[in-house]
Amino acid sequence: MENLNKFLKGVLTLTLIFMTIVNSHGQIVYNFNLDPYVSPSSIVDHVAASQITLSAGSVQTNQTTGTYFVDEPYISGTSGWAQVTQATAKRFCVTLTPDAGYSFSINSLSYDAFATGAGPSATGYSIGSTYYFGANVPDGGSVITPINGTITNQNGLAVATDVCIEGWDNNSRSPAPSGTGTFRIDNFVIGISNVLDVTINKYLIETFKNKLVVAWSTLSETNNSHFTIEHSTDGKKWSELGRVEAQLNRSNEKDYSFEHKDPAHGINYYRLNQFDLDGTKTTFDVLAGFFKGSEETFLFPTIAPDAVYISGETKGRLQVIDAQGRVIQQMNYQSGNPIPTTNLSSGQYFLKLEDQTFTFFKP
After folding, report:
1. Model-level pTM?
2. CA 205, CA 166: separation in Å to the nearest integer?
3. Do the beta carbons of residue 308 and residue 298 sit within 8 Å?
4. Which domain holds residue 35?
5. Does residue 243 sit in the same domain as residue 308?
6. Do 88 and 174 belong to one domain?
7. Is 259 left (phi over 0), alpha (psi -120 to 50) or beta?
8. Per-residue H/E/C for 14-33
9. What angle do CA 31, 162, 39 make, to 5 degrees?
């Protein structure tokens, strides 16, 4: 690291951040033990959870007949379990709704299940229109506890989302159940994470011969009004450079940038602010960029999937150094030649040419 510190002296500081503004996480739990039995017993900040309902018929609450579950009472639904596909199956459902300006992710799901002999022979769960198989249900004699769901790609949910438990006949037992029996569930737990308002993916400074550029991208935005960029030469006194309008609501990646033309020679500090429609402000980490001026040699591009180049008439012994200070490549460099980056792993690198040091990022 001592060698790395030497290389960093007087070099542009480039920071790449995969950042989420996490406000809360945890579990939404339905244990059906207390009145009102269909309401959640545990919730997560900024995500509203509805009462549990049945797609057909009424939920039977405060059920304690038999000893099916360790933690009773439970809920149940009777009849209507003879559908032969999960998509058309009868289901217990809850609706999760993020607060305005927020999104969330579902990272886990579990529940206990029991069916009588005439009940469903299979159970599964769904999030929105995505269906997951849970387990075959034995013939009225065994409790499946718990069914632990595997959840994939349920991120950045910015609208009301239904989470359901289905029961149907998948011909897993013979004779086929009539579907007129009872399906019982208990301890329905939904794991929630990444409750956030704007997801920042990339956040960095790019250097050019006559300007510094603050660049960032978002993976999702909900009720996002705008961004502002502030500047400082000492990291203490700040002034606003400008404003960039946002895309309001999105679930796909969006690139943003702000050019600072003619920055101060030496170290320039920048910080990015994000504003919701209601005026809520979030400030991101401070970035520092070193500006040498247009007369100096510079490296481009600073995000380099294939190759980097050095401006001007330059030559000499060149080294590519990783973030741990290890020399990854070295060569004799002639001006105008590309410096390949295709074989480098993703991360930040430093390029040392004689007495000059540059920095770039391999995505």
Report:
1. 0.55
2. 49
3. no
4. 24-196
5. no
6. yes
7. beta
8. CCCCCEECCCEEEEEEECCC
9. 30
- What are the pLDDT digits (tens) for 61-86? 999 887 788 888 999 999 999 999 99
Total tally of structural domains belonging to the chain:
3
Per-residue buried b or exposed e for 43-69, using 16+ beta carbons within 10 Å of the residue's own CB: bbebbebbebbbeeeebbeebeeeebb
Q: Pick the last residue of a domain from 279, 295, 311.
A: 295
| Chain position carrying tokens 């502030």 | 230
Sign for the CA dihedral angle at 312, 315, 316, 320 comes to: positive
The one-character DSSP state at 178 is -
Please check whether residues 233 and 316 belong to one and the same domain. no
Question: CA torsion sign, 51 to 54 to 57 to 62?
Answer: negative
Q: Answer for the pair 349, 320: CB distance below 8 angstroms, yes or no.
A: yes
We report the CATH number of the domain holding residue 341 as 2.60.40
Over residues 13-64, the pLDDT tens digits come to 333 333 444 445 789 999 999 999 999 999 998 899 999 999 999 999 999 8
